[in-house]
Amino acid sequence: MPQTVKGVIARAAGEPAELARIVIPDPGPSDVIVDIQACGVCHTDLAYRDGGINDEFPFLLGHEAAGRVAQVGDAVTHVKVGDFVVLNWRAVCGQCRACRKGVPEYCFDTSNASAAMTLEDGTELTPALGIGAFAERTIVHEMQCTKVSEEAAPEVAGLLGCGVMAGIGAAVNTGAVQRGESVAVIGLGGVGCAAIAGAVLAGATTVIGIDIQKDKLQAASELGATHTIDSKDLSREQIVEKVQELTGGFGADVVIDAVGIPSTYETAFYARDLAGRVVLVGVPRPEVELTLPLLDVFGRGGALKSSWYGDCLPERDFPYLTDLHLQGRLPLERFVTGTTDLAGVEDALNSLHEGPVLRTVVRIDR
Hints:
Blueprint lengths: L2 E8 L7 E7 L6 E10 L2 H7 L9 E2 L3 E9 L11 E4 L9 H4 L17 E2 L6 E2 L9 E5 L3 E3 L6 H4 L5 H12 L7 E5 L3 H13 L3 E6 L2 H9 L4 E4 L5 H11 L5 E6 L4 H10 E9 L13 H7 L2 E4 L7 H13 L9 E5 L4 H7 L7 E5 L3
Parallel strand pairs: 4-8, 11-12, 11-14, 12-13, 14-15, 15-16, 17-18
Antiparallel strand pairs: 1-2, 1-4, 2-7, 3-5, 3-9, 3-18, 5-6, 6-10
C-alpha cells in the first residue's frame, strides 16, 4: 500500500521550501524504500529551490543522505531490509558505452526509482538528483543504495552522498594527486574543504587553501592545509604569485576550482605548474562563459579536467572512505557544523548564502 510521510518540497522558483505530506508508492521490482536518518543541506538543493537546475517543479529536495532499507521490490538483490546505506545519484548501469569502455564513473544511463512520489493531490514530484531525501522515507533504485559500515553515524556517512565525495574525489580520482605533490584549492566551502582532505589523504606535502573568508581558511587548516591564502583583496596575479612562492616558484601540480566562475578558473589555470592539472569541481551556472588565450592553453600543457561527483564509483568509494573515517584517518565529522530537523530546512538553505557553514545536517528522528 502507498504510504504518506512528511517531506520538504519546492513548489516554484523563488518560493520558500515547505514541509508537505508526500505519498510513497509501492516499490517496483528493482525499487527500494529507505527510512532516512540524516541528510546534508547542499548548495545543489538551494539551486533546485531557486530554479537554477531546471523548471520541473515541484521538487522533493534533499539528496545527501543515509538511512536504513525499509522495503524492497521483488527483484532486489543488491540490498536487504535493515541494511544501513548511503544514497547515491550515480547508479552505474554496467551497459552504456561509458561502462563498456571501462569508465563507469561517467555512466550515461544511471537508474532511478520506477514510480514517482507525489503530493496527496496526485501531483508528481521531481526528486532532487533522483533521490529526494528531505523526507521521512524515499524511494530509489536498488543501485542507488550503497551499504557502508553500521558503525558510522548517519549524519557523517550521508555526507559522502554528494559534496564531500565530490571534493575528495576531485583530488584523489580526477586530479590523481600523487605523494609529494603540491595542491591548491580555490573556494573552501564543503566541497573545497573536502578537496583539502582528499589532497592530504593522497599524500600531497604542500596543500594550499584559498578563500576570502578567514573562518573557511581556518577550517581548511584544521583539515590539513599546510598554507592558506586570504584572497579577499588580491588580484589574480597576486594569488598566482603567492601560490608560486609556496611551490618553489613553479605553481601547484594540481589546482582545484571549487567555485566555478571565470575568475576562479582563470586563477586556477595560471596558478598551476607547467604541465600541471586544473580540476573544475565547482558547478558553473548555465549562462557563464570563459575566455582564455589559446596559445596559453597550448603552451602550458598539462590537463584541464572537470570532476563530476568526484569521478566516484559509490560501491568502491563510499565503504572505503567510511572505513577510513572510522579508523580516524578521515575526519568527516568536522564537516558537520550544525544540525536541524525537516522544519528547519528553509532556514538551513538560506544560511548557505552566509558563508561559514560547511554542512548543516537534517536529522530525522522517529
